[in-house]
Amino acid sequence: MSQPVLTATKSEQAFAKAEKVIAGGVNSPVRACKSVGATPIFIDRADGPYLHDIDGKSYIDYVGSWGPMILGHSHPRVLEALEHAIQHGTSYGAPSIGEVDLAELVCRLVPSMEMVRMVCSGTEACMSAIRLARAYTKRKMVIKFDGCYHGHADSFLVRAGSGLATLGIASSPGVPEEISKLTLSLPYNDLEAVKKAFEKFPQEIACIIVEPIVGNSGLILPKEGYLAGLRELATKYGALLILDEVMTGFRVSAGGAQKLYNITPDLTCLGKIIGGGLPVGAYGGRKEIMEMIAPLGPVYQAGTLAGNPLSMAAGLAQLKSLSPSGTYEKLEFLTKRLADGLIACQSKTKVPFQVVSVCGMISVFFTDKPVVDLESAMTSNTERFGKFWRKMIDSGTYWPPSQFESAFISLVHSNRDIDETISAFEQAVSQLD
Ligand code: KE4
Question: How high is the pLDDT of residue 164?
């Protein structure tokens, strides 16, 4: 009997076309699904907690555009704001009131941000923040942490997380040694390592930049006292503390991780949620530091589409929709429901895995070790994660396609969605060996 002819899916056909004209067939590496042994699914549209691909298949989405879609996709209030804004044009290259409205709201919700500057990505926000820290302190060195990802600016591509960890890249070619040697990448959750760095370079470290809750190694929580320790050391040695809240800002609480852990940074980086799904980033902090930014001061940073009226409109609509009381309690409840359900599956399989969660974010590490830093995260069995991912996608659950990324829960994931995910997860892990 002749073998059935397997015709390529529309996504496979689209990917084959994409690979001819887009490097790697994707516009951001992690989307290529290489580390999970799959070809990417091309999305046709998204609504609420669901993605719908070009082959007509639907998925419960736990990527959420890597964080922005906290209200779910195509939220009516965000779409309405965009439909209104687009009637006024798409970009002016001149100030618009939406920039002021969003800036005022961000500064109100994040009191450490006395002044802010909008940019177009988290990378730009973090890149600009360390330039500002270097100018303000007149120092050159930067402390970051293994497995933390602050975008793809040269100074950050040293033992970073996200796509580098996914692809096993320690740091990127093309970054001159003269630049990378100014970046000290230390183990996360290890205060002793930071103390030693400051003792070695007491006058040379401009800043510490850290994901207060790490999302780019998979999810890793700060140990008790860790963030307070970073704050104390930065102050003691005259370095700035920069919290990269591009992922955690307005996700883990109304005021981000800094509110959750009661830490006051000198500068904060934001992105993702404040754009409602449109290109955005922001950095801000103490007024005396931010006043060094051009045109007020000598530190240059600029951008054609910074403060774009559509991004501002979508971001403002999204942030305002997060303000009702009970919002984060609901997100916390949904996250805990999922986390508890996944943990309960441990009795259904001989395969060891760890579940780490915080309001709106969750990760599953296929290792028997507690995950407290990149090194322990790397003990995960990535091949097993790949098998898990392929079983989940076949069941209609779109989990992040990397062991070293966090999953995101939206406010519109229903109890039913969560329970379906737990069932899919139980089935997937019970079939792993
Ligand atoms: P963007 O330049 O991608 O907007 O932001 C960079 C960035 C900075 N800081 C943190 C804490 C981040 O998580 C990010 C970007 N996150 C990744 C997800 N792990 C973006 C996804 C991708 O690169 O495709």
Answer: 82
